[in-house]
Amino acid sequence: MPLDKEFKDIPGTIVFDAEQSRKGYWLNQFCMSLMKAENRARFKANERAYLDEWPMSEEQKQAVLARDLNRCIELGGNIYFLAKIGATDGKSFQQMAGSMTGMSEDAYRDMMVKGGRSIEGNRHIGEKK
Amino acid sequence: MAHISASVYTSHVPAVGAALDLGKTGEAYWQPLFAGYEFSKQWEKEQKPDVIFLVFNDHATAFSLDLIPTFAIGTAAEFNPADEGWGPRPVPKVIGHPKLAAHIAQSVIQDDFDLTIVNKMDVDHGLTVPMSLMFGQPQAWPCPVVPFAVNVVQYPVPSGRRCFMLGQAIRKAIESYDEPLNVQIWGTGGMSHQLQGPRAGLINKEFDTMFLDRLIDDPEGLSKVPHIDYVREAGSEGIELVMWLIARGAMSDIDGGRKPTVRHRFYHVPASNTAVGHLILENN
Asked: ipTM exceeding 0.90?
């Protein structure tokens, strides 16, 4: 059963449902493998070779190599799995989240310190800000 | 018989664990957050709970996409802090309470909630950060824990209504346990936050305030809030708040008793990407 339409009306948000999970199975399982120190070391030594050990799509591999988290999510990745890549790179959750917004790291951090992104104008796609 | 003396609610932001572990709690950025938990640590010293029933979610740590239980109860004798990619947090091993956990599983499953029983599980920041916030940084945790993991990662997650009813079944189970244990139930996660996509960084103080108000005074009505409202208003990861309804459902007033006493309420923005909420309700 597809996701209710109303969930697709939220801007900048992809809900990780069974369909996304199916698409992203190997991408997310690759991420899980990075919870072991020896796998992190092998991945860092040769990212492409490590990715080629997984039955991921070429698009998914390219998105990982480019650290394009928005693309990873479109292709079925989930942020809690993708966070293992960030951890391997020594990135904080704030750096990872900020990287998806098009903002600089400092601008994103400042926005959070000032109370975060406002809900106003961010409830529905196409809503006037 | 065992009884539930209080419910505790708190966010479980990973950066809070990192700030504690790296000795940054005195920094200007973190100081206001940790100040909000000073009361709570003192309160726990006075309360001396025998067991914590700790509702949390696993963040792709113990459960990969190979296995996604909606409700999972930890029945093991101990649970190790997980390596989430940064190495395990330097916190004590979590000691379980297999006998109480098995009793709760028996009772709650017969009450029509199909729990998954987990005899081996590493626990991530979802569980260990609330422990650090409430108990500080001891050599060993002061009491055993029954970990209770809820799927809030892959949609559909359980509804607020289902969580609220589950809390009621958990209270029945605990109160029928034949040892005089002082049990606390904790609901963790939230409040508003979104960690993905161009809308990352979303915070909705108005929603969070409404949620805290209604959790105290109108939990029944709050339990009927649909998923779409959480995702739209509180962000894609704000859905974690349904877990707070499990702890709230376990308070006696839901079953005709007196209203709980609000002992502490705290709200702070931000901790990394997240709005932090914290509440202590004493059962009456």
From this structure: yes
SS3 B260: coil
What crossing angle do the helices spanning B205-217 and B227-234 adopt, rounded to 10°?
Answer: 140
Q: Which of B217, B244, B218, B216 is nearest to B230 (CA)?
A: B244
Q: Which chain A positions have a beta carbon within 8 Å of B67's beta carbon? A: none
* Domains along the sequence of chain B with CATH: 11-276 (3.40.830.10)
Interior/surface letters B52-84, b for 16+ CB within 10 angstroms, e for the rest: bbbbbbbbbbbbbbeeebbbbbbbbeebebbbb
- Beta-carbon neighbour count of residue A52 at 10 Å? 11
A to B CB pairs, distance under 8 Å = 157
- Whole-number pLDDT of residue A1: 62
Count of CB atoms situated within 10 Å of the CB of B2: 20
List, as ranges, residues 128-157 from B with C-beta within 8 Å of A: 153-156
Written as one letter, the residue type at B112 is D
| Domains of chain A listed by start with CATH number | 15-89 (1.10.700.10), 92-129 (no CATH)
Q: How far apart are CA B117 and CA B53, in angstroms?
A: 15
Give one word for B3, left, alpha or beta, with left for phi > 0 and alpha for psi -120 to 50: beta
Per the CB < 8 Å rule, is B85 touching A4? Answer: no
Selection from B46, B53, B55 nearest residue B144 by Cα: B53
- Tens of pLDDT, residue by residue over B68-119, are 999 999 999 999 999 887 889 999 999 999 999 999 999 999 999 999 999 9
- Is B125 noted as a catalytic residue in this protein? yes
Residue in chain B nearest A85 by alpha carbon:
B85
Residue B167 phi/psi, 5° resolution?
A: -60, -40
